[in-house]
Amino acid sequence: MKKQTIWILTILMALAFVGLLCIQIFYMKNIVQIRYEQFSQGVRQSLVAVATHLEQDETRHFLEDDVSEVATSSLVPYIADPAARLGGIKYSFTTSTGIEADLTIKGEISQISKIQNSNDALGEHYQSMQDAYRNRYLYQKGILDDVILNIMSKASRRPITDRADSARVRTYLRQELDTLGLKVPFEFAVVNYAGTILYKSANYRATAADRDNMFVQTLFPNDLAGSRNYLKVYFPTKSDYIFSSISFMVPAFAFTFILLIIFVYTIIVAFRQKKLTEMKNDFINNMTHEFKTPISSISLAAQMLNDPSVRKSPTMLQQISTVINDETKRLRFQVEKVLQMSMFDRQKATLKLEEADANALIFNIVNTFKLKVEKYGGSIEARLDAMDAIVNIDEMHFTNVIFNLLDNAVKYRSEERPLRLTVSSRDLGEDRIEISIEDNGIGIRREDLKKIFDKFYRVSTGNRHDVKGFGLGLAYVRKMVGELGGEISVESEFNTGTKFIIILPLSKN
């Protein structure tokens, strides 16, 4: 997969995740807002109902005191003037509520006529009944008027603890809130028009409630403005109650973040695999080139051996034999470097550890490598100052480590000055020895220093094309030094030189 394709997929997935998170956040915000509005509306409705209950209780109080002995009647008849007609005398009347009724007196025609002609006794009787009902109606109406006047004049002068005591207020609040499904704890207080608390619940703290969590309801709103009292209520666990109703959104957010983490990890792995693939391709290209040269030389030498004139010349045979031997060694060395790659996937390398003198091994390596350095007009110097250099190592791998570092110094030499190599050793104390390899080559840029020990990584050499390799040398060096119980570090300055420092433990024997 191309890097551009990976970037396009990354951007699209990132936009999708951002959009999904925005939708979830917007949806949750709307749900919270709706829950807050529903909660506030329910609380206000409950407070209005509480105030109404208290007003009804007060009205009942005055009615029980003033009209307990008065019989209430909703119909008060009003008898109209009788109208005498043949066949009977019909009286019409209307109640105080507007209901019309008729009363008819029937009998013999002669008797009805006498009544119609006289009309005095019966008229006086019904007139007295009409007066009695009117007087009773006026009496009861006066009592009700007295009750209303008492409520208007005396009620506001009663103590608020009598008109709305704490127990009744709490009971009404609890009943109304439970009716609306708002089963949450609350704290309340009753204050006067000046804001002075007249009484409050045990845990009421005005400072504990924010502006959106304090609900106020006027008690007995018909009282005069200067004598009004107010009921204040807040809910300590309002936020918990609101957010508990949207707890189902928490798993959705959790799954989204898990997917986001997996997505980011997948993208990182994809880029690492892409980089590793590029490194492996570069490795294969370099390996092909490295193998091609010795194979071509050996093939050419074999063709020359087929020439009879060459076989007759001992000098030529010796030269061809030397070429074949050198190229075979070179090919074997390249194959060995390729096989070293398999060691990186092992948790522990198989080593043949034995005690050896590091100074002696380094001295032999320097003498062997001197010819190659002098070939490029350079020089190599050994400063083996360590007094105790007995280390427990695998001689073959230790030799490869030093050889790889020296070989890199030759590869990355500077064209502007003669190559100068210095291999030194010194005592560090605490049963350790330091081995350093320093050159005056092209050096390493700061951004490359952290990556030079990575597998397949090769430092860019600009326009130079004579530097070949697989990017395995320094990775192999670090792994072997670690397997031997040591440490390796590098100091370098671009266009000045590089110094590799190896620290190994001395043999305990």
Structure description:
- The protein has 509 residues and is an alpha+beta fold.
- Helix content is 53%, strand content 17%.
- It contains 13 helices and 14 strands.
- Helix 7 runs antiparallel to helix 9 (314-340), helix 10 packs parallel to helix 11 (395-411) and helix 11 runs antiparallel to helix 13.
- The model is unreliable at 67-86 and 462-466 (pLDDT under 50).
Annotation, overall tally of beta strands: 14
Number of helical segments with 4 or more residues: 13
Largest sheet: 5 strands, mixed
Strand content: 15-25%
Strand order of the largest sheet: 9-11-12-14-13
List segments where confidence is low: pLDDT < 50 over at least 5 consecutive residues.
Answer: 67-86, 462-466
Please describe the topology of this protein.
Layout: H1 3-66, E1 83-85, E2 88-94, E3 100-105, H2 109-118, H3 120-154, H4 160-163, H5 166-179, E4 187-192, E5 197-200, E6 214-219, E7 229-234, H6 238-244, H7 249-305, H8 308-311, H9 314-340, E8 354-357, H10 358-375, E9 379-384, E10 390-393, H11 395-411, E11 420-427, E12 432-439, H12 446-449, H13 473-483, E13 487-493, E14 497-505
Parallel strand pairs: 9-11
Antiparallel strand pairs: 1-2, 2-3, 4-5, 4-7, 6-7, 8-10, 11-12, 12-14, 13-14
Descriptive terms for the model:
509 residues; alpha+beta; 4-stranded antiparallel beta sheet; 17% strand
Quickly describe the structure:
This protein has helices at about 5-65, 110-120, 120-155, 160-165, 165-180, 240-245, 250-305, 310, 315-340, 360-375, 395-410, 445-450, 475-485, and strands at about 85, 90-95, 100-105, 185-190, 195-200, 215-220, 230-235, 355, 380-385, 390-395, 420-425, 430-440, 485-495, 495-505. The chain is α+β, with helices and mostly antiparallel strands.
